[in-house]
Amino acid sequence: MNGPVVEVRDLRKVIEGREILKGISFEVREGEIFSIIGGSGSGKTSITKHIVGLWKPTSGSVKVFGEEVSLLTQDELDSLRKDIGYVFQEGALFDSLKVWENVGFYFLEHTSMPREEIRELALEKIRLVDLEEDVLDLMPSELSGGMRKRVSIARAIATDPRLIIYDEPTSGLDPITSRVIDRLILDLREKTGTTAIVVTHDMISAFTISDRLILVKKGVAVSMGTPSEVLRSENPIVHEFVGEMREFLLSQSESV
Ligand SMILES: Nc1ncnc2c1ncn2[C@@H]1O[C@H](COP(=O)(O)OP(=O)(O)OP(=O)(O)O)[C@@H](O)[C@H]1O
Ligand SMILES: [Mg+2]
CB under 8 Å to 172, separation ≥6 — which residues? Predict the structure, then answer.
């Protein structure tokens, strides 16, 4: 496609009388890794809820693949969601289903594809996230935190989406596993070319894997640009947010 994959213009959202998004604008280009960063409660997840059509803007525009999301019919919305892989903040695997059934969930629910074929497809996706065949029949409770994230990612890419949204992919993981997940997000972009939005408050992650990012505070977009543009900005809120990590992050973001 020619235009941006996601185009958000002056997005405002009022919920229970409170304005939680106060005129957010950005666009995500094809093939890009774009991060949304900011403290807890700043509105990061809320932005993504508009992108997948779970919430309608109070005002402003959210276009995905060129279509105004709030104007889609239910059928069109279902088809849009098939094109978007969403890695939930909490992981959200079904505890009573095996790993392969989690990964193949869309096909088990929405198609008449034979179970054997779905299992094969799940295996292909499991390998893309660097797990092996032996996890297919495990239950989510038998996995480590890092493995659960990988399985969530495998499920999100099962339908070959054109856009993947990762909501806090490294939250709850130790620093080493967090960097492994970062690497995986980069590898997947390399292998599949899929556009990605990463919602995170992990600054190392945001400033090392993103092509561009936006910093949100209390529903306002404070700064946007490449990692080094944002880090080099004079904006005091950026300085407050990155704090003592600024020099380190600059060296990381400019070393690649
Ligand atoms: N369903 C809801 N009803 C009312 N208020 C909500 C709802 N969901 C979110 N909010 C409010 O909107 C604001 C932004 O929430 P959001 O979940 O987008 O934050 P976030 O940046 O993703 O935070 P975190 O890093 O903790 O996940 C918060 O003040 C939150 O209380
Ligand atoms: Mg959130």
Answer: 145
